[in-house]
């Protein structure tokens, strides 16, 4: 029950140096999929809540209190994050427990590092 | 002519540690705005083309050849990137020349670094 429906291709993500050479259409589609998933305020807050929750994992029962949204709406947003490979879920008894997939976040984070990362301009 | 219509709040972005503590609604809205802008394959390729172009800047005339899209469509995508603070433009004679705003990219990149960034899990 812990499998991704359509996991992100971490290898493709980590080899996408956005700032150093032009992305191919395939690379940009793969990366954009992750950014689109987190490019929504509720989903970004969910990601943050999961990542910072005790033990690094959280179930819907831990998350609903932070939002004025229904359980099904939150579950939908979690599904989008999961399908983009940003989080993964594992069912235990009644609940699915979600945790961050650090490999995906590390890959997209490093893809955005400016080419002049060695210098400080801000 | 080089001003952003609505620049990103770099200070807010860089103080949004997605992975270490729960984001506020305001922090998530600010960050999500940037991720949404780059969460589209054409825009991500445009960003990559600009960042890796000779001199670190490019005009629409340099970019249209990479896409089977009209000039106005590309200009629209550039406007979205600009309004999110990802790129900035400067008009010189006929053309607007775009370059990446590294401070925005650095801020959103660092916001995604997993809390366990010191360890290697993948």
From TrEMBL, chains A, B:
What's the protein called, per UniProt? ArsR family transcriptional regulator
Q: Which key words are in the record?
A: DNA-binding, Transcription, Transcription regulation
**Pfam families for the chain:** HTH_5
Q: Which organism is it from?
A: Saccharopolyspora spinosa
Highest taxon of the lineage: Bacteria
Q: Which SUPFAM superfamilies match?
A: Winged helix' DNA-binding domain (SSF46785)
Identify the residues that the record assigns to the HTH arsR-type domain, covering every copy.
Answer: 23-120
> What GO molecular-function term can you cite, just one?
DNA binding
């Amino acid at each position: 029950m812990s499998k991704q429906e359509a996991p992100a291709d971490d290898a493709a993500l980590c080899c996408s140096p956005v700032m150093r050479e032009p992305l191919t259409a395939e690379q940009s589609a793969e990366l954009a999929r992750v950014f689109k998933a987190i490019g929504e305020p509720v989903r970004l807050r969910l990601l943050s809540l999961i990542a910072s929750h005790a033990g690094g994992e959280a179930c819907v029962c831990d998350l609903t209190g932070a939002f004025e949204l229904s359980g099904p709406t939150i579950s939908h947003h979690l599904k989008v994050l999961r399908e983009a490979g940003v989080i993964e879920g594992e069912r235990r008894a009644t609940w699915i427990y979600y945790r961050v997939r650090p490999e995906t976040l590390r890959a997209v984070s490093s893809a955005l590092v400016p080419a002049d990362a060695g210098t400080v301009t801000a």
